[in-house]
Amino acid sequence: MHIVIIGSGIAGITFAEKMRSLSPDAKITLLSRENQGYYSRPMLSRGFSRADIEQAIILKPFNVLQEKNICVIGGVSVTRIERNSRQLSIQSAGDLETLTYDKLVLAPGSDAFVPPPLQPFRELFFTLNSLVDLQRLRRFRQPFLERGQTPHWAIIGGGLIGCEVASDLAVAGDKVTVFHAMDRLMERQLVAEDSATLLQVLQTSGVRVLLNQSVQGLQKSAEKIQVVSADGSSAFDAVLVACGFKPRTQLAADAGLETGRGIKVDQYLQSTDDHIFVLGDAAELPNGKLYAFILPIRHQALWLAAHLSGQQSRPWQPPAFNPKAKVHNFEAAHPYIF
Ligand SMILES: Cc1cc2nc3c(=O)[nH]c(=O)nc-3n(C[C@H](O)[C@H](O)[C@H](O)COP(=O)(O)OP(=O)(O)OC[C@H]3O[C@@H](n4cnc5c(N)ncnc54)[C@H](O)[C@@H]3O)c2cc1C
């Protein structure tokens, strides 16, 4: 049996390793756009206060997986799933190849969500969704540090990632202003009392927080970026949009699989095609939920490997978990809302 996995995040890697250990005879191929190895996405938001981050973040080079007899093909993009012939089209540096599968596991993760009003300004802002994004941000920041300065950042979005990054940049010594469209921070995850504590913690660390500030657009002026909101406009060295995530569903939708917010699966993590399963940020469960956190994703991946090896016949049930924001010096007093 040839099992092909798309994606080298926590979902794809955990599944590949567990599948290898449970099914020594299966042929396992993992395809990914990444070519720097398997890295910790949560650590991205500690990407400024830690000098060694670009090394520390790599949890597993791909050759460690090759040594376990998992064929990893990095630096490639799967562009098409041909379900009738169970064939994938793979794009790599100008070449187009095909690969057939018996079972396909989609673990393509998610992109940063960019609200429609900001989409026309794509070249004027950063996002922080991958190691390449972090490296780009660090390269932008470096010349300021070499001149003995620090940049002034506008962060658009006071959700989980926006608050984490604001906090880390402030700890690293940068000036930070957060624009948040709602009247309190992390309103999707925290009760009002904890949002107020978080606001205080960020302000104490030097972050300026502007609530009820819906950003309408960006403008480039000389070396600065103007952030335009209802209250006027102000200039920053750089803008980072942190407005949540968007599951990568296009490949599946183009193949005729049912998609909604994510790629729809049943309780067995099976898509609307018997041969295709979905894990991680991209999987939308029958209750409409996306379990886009490390703990439940790891649980899904281990469960699916056991299921496909014939060792698990009960449906996947999400484990109990309590997400936590990695904002320096912040502890919520109440459990997070999920
Ligand atoms: C800044 C940040 C901080 C976070 N902090 C936390 C935290 O503290 N705790 C927590 O639980 N969660 C956190 N999360 C969320 C967590 O990191 C994600 O839920 C998790 O990493 C998703 O894993 P995944 O394997 O589904 O997807 P990903 O890690 O996104 O991996 C998907 C992979 O698929 C590849 N891919 C996609 N499409 C294709 C294609 N067509 N062809 C080839 N390859 C493809 C991508 O290149 C990528 O390698 C954070 C996320 C971010 C961005």
Description of the molecule:
The protein contains eight helices and 21 strands. The protein is α/β, with parallel strands linked by helices. The chain folds into two domains: about 1-110 and about 245-310, FAD/NAD(P)-binding domain (3-Layer(bba) Sandwich); about 115-240, FAD/NAD(P)-binding domain (3-Layer(bba) Sandwich), CATH 3.50.50. The strands form seven sheets. It has a five-stranded parallel sheet. Strands 13-12-11-17 form a four-stranded parallel sheet. The model has no long low-confidence stretch (mean pLDDT about 95).
What's the short version?
The chain is an alpha/beta fold and 338 residues long.
Highlighted features:
single chain, 338 residues, alpha/beta, FAD/NAD(P)-binding domain, 2 domains, five-stranded parallel β-sheet, four-stranded parallel β-sheet, 8 helices, binds flavin-adenine dinucleotide
| CATH superfamily descriptor of the largest domain | FAD/NAD(P)-binding domain
User: Can you list the ligands bound to this structure?
Assistant: flavin-adenine dinucleotide
User: Strand content of the residues, in percent?
Assistant: 25-35%
Count of the separate structural domains? 2
Based on the coordinates given, report the CATH architecture of the largest domain: 3-Layer(bba) Sandwich
| Strand ordering within the main sheet | 5-2-1-9-20
Mean pLDDT: 96
User: Considering DSSP H and I runs of 4 or more, what fraction of the residues is helical?
Assistant: 10-25%
